[in-house]
Amino acid sequence: MEGFELVAIVVFFLIGYWIVDFFWPKKKAEAPAAPASVEAWHDILGVGPQASVEQIREAYLAKSAEHHPDRVFDRGPEAREAAQRMTRKLNDAFEQAMQANRR
To answer: Which residues contact 93 (CB under 8 A, 6 or more apart)?
Structure first.
């Protein structure tokens, strides 16, 4: 292969890439994240605002086990989505609790 053929291959490869990129459907922008819950972390976890780290951890583990998506797997997609939302809510509340106790 001579130099000209190699240059031609690279140029045609780039042109082909740009053509495919132009006509290929673009991904839609992700929906903005839902606003943060107005419910306090201690209300979500079911503990008092002055709870110790161990009490917070125990409440988090108990609620997580209770609302885990695998527990409602056979109840349909709506139940799974509700369990996933509650699990995210519990995770966020636990994270907020841990940050509040570091201060």
So the answer is: 37, 41, 44, 45, 60
